[in-house]
Amino acid sequence: MTGAQIIFLMVAAFTLLSAVMVVTTRNLVHAALWLVSTLFGVAVVYALLNANFIAVVQVVVYIGAIAILFIFAVMLTRKDMRDSGPQINKNWWAGALVAMLTFAGLAFLLSGWSGFSKTAAELPAGFDSISLLGESLVSPEAYVLPFEVASVLLLAALVGAVYVAFNPSKK
Amino acid sequence: MVPLSWYLLLAAALFGIGLFGVLVRRNAIAVLLGIELMLNAVNINLVSFWRYSDVLTSMSGQVFSIIVFAVAAAEVSVGLALVISVYRRRNTVIADELDMLKW
Amino acid sequence: MSFWNDPLRVAADWLQGIFVGWGMNETGAHVLVVFLGVLLLITLLMVLDIFLVWIERKVVARFQDRLGPNRLGPFGLIQPFADIIKLIIKEDTTPGDADKVVYNLAPILSMMSVLILWAVVPLAPVMLGTDLNVGVLFLIAAGAIGTLSIIMAGWASNNKFAMIGGFRQVAVMVSFEVPMLTMLLIPTIFAQSMNMNAIIDAQNVWYVWISPLGALIFLIAAIAELGRAPFDLAEGESELVSGFNIEYSGMKFGMFYAGELLHAFTFGGFWAILFFGGYRFFGLEQVSPFLAILILIIKAMLGYWVIMWVKYTMMRIRIDQMLSFNWKFLTPLSFALLLVTALMNALLASAPTWLYILGMFLANVVTGWIALEIARSATRQERERIEGPNKKVAEASH
Amino acid sequence: MSTETLIWLLPLPPALAFFLIVLFTNKSKALSHTIAVGAAFLSWLGAMIVFIRALGVEHLSEHPFESAINWLPTGETFLKIGVLIDPLSATVLFFVAWCVLMIFIYSVGYHNFGQPEGDHDHAGLPPHGATVHGHTVPSVEPMYSRFFAFIGLFAFGMLTLVVSDNVLTMFVGWEIMGLCSYLLIGFWYGKESARNAAIKAFMTTRIGDVFMLLGIAFLYSVTGSLSFKDIFSEEVLHALASVPTGVFGLSAAGLIGLLLFIGTVGKSAQFPLHVWLPDAMEGPTPVSAMIHAATMVSAGVYAVIRMFPIISLDEKTMTVVAFIGAFTALFAATIAVAQNDIKRVLAYSTISQLGFMIAALGIHAYVAATFHLVTHAFFKALLFLGSGSVIHGMEHGVLHTGNHKVDPQDMFNMGGLRHKMPITFWTFLIGGFALSGFPLVTAGFWSKDEILADAWAHHHYAIFFTLAIAAFMTAFYTMRQITLTFFGEPRTEEAKHAHETPWTMTLPLVVLSVFAVGYGWVGMPHWITGGLVPNWFHEFVGSMLHEHAAELEFNIVPLGTSLLVALGGLTAGYFAYRNVQSPAEDKLQIPVLKNKWYVDELYNVVFIKPAVWFSEVFVSKWMDKGFIDGILHLFGPATGGVGSAIRNYFDLPVINHFFGDGSAEVTWWFGRNLRPIQTGRIQQYLVLSLIVLFVVGGLLYFLLMA
């Protein structure tokens, strides 16, 4: 077992543990904070995959914006500090079964795939994935259209969110 | 070196945990948390497929994960706006109690 | 290679040699040396932080026509140490209904979000923590952790004032991240890289000359990000008592406080790196890394001094004004500036240097001027809408 | 910056100014005119740089500044657009830049910038004055910013037209100007007459433009290109001249030339499409100057000069051009004699002078026509701005006395203004003398003399005499105008209180008067200078033609005629009107001249009345209401009958009862029994659908794999 594998296992364990806490903890703010730590773990996974840019963007977007938004939303929709009542619905066993089935199905399907246990080639020296990424995002031969569509989607979501959450009775 | 299968299994497990959260949590916000986990699982897959592909210069994996970021941001903003809007009208965010669409 | 030219490498090699000599394996020794390096940097920063407290108190005193600490030691230099001792021996309270883990985690994260920034600060051409190729974005990422710490503190205290303060600070930070990120793209455009060292290397001309408006917007956004006056709404003594850190006492409060000062100094440093050439100063940085560090610290101190100057000169503005200012003025302006900069950069790509600088400078000035004119006319219309039509004209026609 | 880039950028500042003013700064008058004048200044600066660089190029006509880009893909090729500065466009650019800048500056003063807002002023009406401390003072134009936006767009159109290297962009600039002239003539849209004049101008020029577009289309279909470089090459011209068309026995070149010329007839207000130009005087005076001197009408002549290589290929077309030009010159001059409105006299004078240019072109006097175009632009801009200054001064008097019945534009209300408005008087005098062709010192003399000399030398005696008479009348009515306006004693109280105008208005007058005198010197024939100074203009512009026409030898007849008509006309005008006090004493107020030969009335009877009858009576009443509506009314009942039959015998029993109600009952039964599955709980749905997915997916997988 090499150092990289040990690090991966540690990170994966941390990530999965945090993820389990996200779905099981009773306190929603804690769940959101556990989500932050899961996301952080995922960012480290990206870093392990040599995707520095994605890792930093993960921190900026997910932790800096999305997780914060979650915490906000949790705070805005609670009646008191303590959570009352069950946090899990009555059919939780069915949910758990389906989730396990999903994992098992995915693992089964993947294990049948020829590239399953492939190993990666070393990155060539001086490999600059950021400029490649940037160029493919705005190159007409590559992904400029999805990129633009994503920006339009963001704008639409922005307008839609403001409209939906706007409280007309107060004004 | 870590084989691809480890990343894929990590992603599958994360996806399963997220799915569990989506299926069983009563609070709508917690459901959205689960969705975030699932999206992250997908992203791990995308990035690891990029890293393990034979053509590293093809950036499809990273580009798609960037687009997933955008989609996730849009999804969360609209989703949370909906949750807050529902909370204003119904005074609850428990998914089970929001069942006016039955019958 | 001598100690004078590359002290870090020499010291690291020496230490590693010792550790290997003690019987450690190569990798373990390397990890240990790196760890010790990080520890050294953090320790030095903490010591610097203590002096920042002293500087801050001295400077504010001068601004307010007072003397400042002057009893303990020469010029009151020992005063901050006394403060620390006081903070440490104070009773460390935790509110009864607080969320204990989160409550205690928040100040640590706050301090961490600042210290982590120094991982990418190039102290000298050969001295930097990690040569990250997305160093500029890292700045924002660390800021995200700072945001998190504040909302955690605000929520976990179980106190209305703390909660409101936390909300406000988060709203401000998330909003001002937009112009800040946009302005970070301007050095990126010029240097064609997000790497801090590359940005410094590319600054044969300080970027403040070719993007003065960008530097200004960055400074404003940085002050907002820091939560210092005139944007210190999260603390707002007169309205929120002390905002998000109201329930904290002792060294936990001290960590917030020290974190804020160090954060301000760090942003002064980033301002210097991104717009004022970092450690470069007419080739002096080539002489020795020590000189380079000195130059960087002097520049960072100047930036810090500007931030203090703003803090002790301006009054606090209202939260809605501040968010309007960001979304209706600063963000559009920074987008416009980014567009103008990119356009001019492409247009003047083959121009001689003096023309390039002049063109960029003028483009910035014109953009700023147009923005100010638009803002002025908008505010005038707003005022007329509230106060009714201009009274002068009405009187003149009678 | 390379010259080509600079040329590309020339038209842009005014266009940017237009958008800036319209979109952002229209609330601020000072900012608007700063932007507009600044833009005009930038264009002027660029034009001067281009002009000076153009002067420095040897054989500019063979090696013009040019640059072109692909624009519209047309099949496999591209329609190219580009810019071109050759001697002709450089010359035109020179005077356009100067006139535009001067007019922009003049407009600041003319619209009373800096004065208070009027008491009763409305957008769409000229300002009526404001009361300050009991005095009535001029008030600022309510739509000040809009005016600058419009003239900015106008300047853009003109500069585009001048720098284009092809017919298409030239036409685009041409049409932009058409739009702007419409907007500007109707600038005071609150006035009925202004509205009508705007529509009239637009419609009349449109007639010309349609023919011009036809000509362009024909040109493109024959040559496959619209770029000047291509269509003026030897082989294309040769081909054009040799292709016959079935129309009047004209060659393709002749027909294209004729169609393009009709466009010019509309734009440059030649007979019979001249009727719009006098009415265009409803616009503010800078506009009149803009339209009549600097831009639009010059554009018309410029287009003919530009297309001269094609038009000159067919002698029949050239004859038409020459006769229309000469006739217009004389015709308009006769009308101008009997007009009392100071601006209308100038308007008819413009038509007449344009006739000179067209006639000159018709007799192959290319250089003379261009020369007269430039000199005329300068002195006519000067005269219009001068007349605006006079009107402005008179309005001051009207505001002072408060008698609004006095028309500040009627020359019989003026008199003696030379003491009140000295700068305006002297500059107007210079402009008037230039227009009359006062010998030796004024620019107008040199250019007009060259036209006459050309006509004489090439034996076009009919043209020569017509133009000579027109020139005599020009001098006569010019002097009439000057005498009535400036000499003698004030005939009304208002004239006594007229005022000199502010520096923003007089400065352009002074600048333009310098050109009105000085520009003539660049085109002096060599016999007068004794060969000391080469005839620069002739060399420069003359190089445009493939056969470089030799300069004319000295001939006493045209020179004598020029001297005679100019001095004679001026003298006659002064003595005839020296003591005239009212219109009744004016012997030339003949109804037929006063009413402009009844051309408007003729058009009204021949075109407008029948058109109105056709649309209102024939189309509307008979065709639409009678015939078409009748058919439609028939459809209604018939369709109704068919419909009700289908309803009663098919729809109700078969569709409704059997299919409709029957299927509803079945659906209802199913719905009632399946209802409990709908719990409204999203997570249950999700679980169920996933289970179904697994079952189906698993089955498929094993079936397919096995």
Provide a descriptive summary of the structure in words:
The complex is a heterotetramer of chains A (171), B (103), C (398) and D (706). With 171 residues, chain A is an all-alpha fold. Chain A has 6 helices and no strands. In chain A, helix 1 (3-24) packs antiparallel against helix 2 (28-48). Chain B has 103 residues and is mostly helical. Chain D is built from 29 helices and 4 strands. A two-stranded antiparallel sheet of chain D has the order 1-2. Chain D has a two-stranded antiparallel sheet with strand order 3-4. In chain D, strand 1 (65-74) and strand 2 (77-85) form a beta hairpin. Chain D has 706 residues and is mainly alpha-helical. Classes of the chains: A mainly alpha (171), B mainly alpha (103), C mainly alpha (398), D mainly alpha (706). Chains in contact: A-B, A-C, A-D, B-D, C-D. The B-D interface holds B 22-24, 31, 95-96, 98-103 and D 675-676, 678-683, 686-687, 690.
Most extensive interface, chain pair and sizes: A-B, 90 and 72 residues
Percentage of β-strand residues of chain B: under 5%
- CATH superfamily grouping of the domain at 1-79 in chain A: NADH-ubiquinone/plastoquinone oxidoreductase chain 6, subunit NuoJ
Mean pLDDT of chain B: 85
> How helical, in percent, are the residues of chain B?
over 70%
- Show unreliable segments of chain B: none
**SSE topology string of chain B:** HHH
CATH architecture call of chain B: Orthogonal Bundle
Query: Using only CA atoms, what is the Rg of chain A?
Result: 21 Å
Tell me, briefly, the overall form of chain B.
elongated
For the terminal residues of chain A, how far apart are their CA atoms?
A: 64 Å
* 3D shape of chain A: globular
Secondary structure category of chain B: mainly alpha
CATH uppermost class of chain B: Mainly Alpha
What is the percentage of strand-forming residues of chain A? under 5%
What is the tally of beta strands of chain A? 0
Which structural class do you get from the secondary structure elements of chain A? mainly alpha
Number of strands of chain B: 0
Q: What is the overall number of helices of chain B? A: 3
CATH class category label of the domain at 1-79 in chain A:
Mainly Alpha
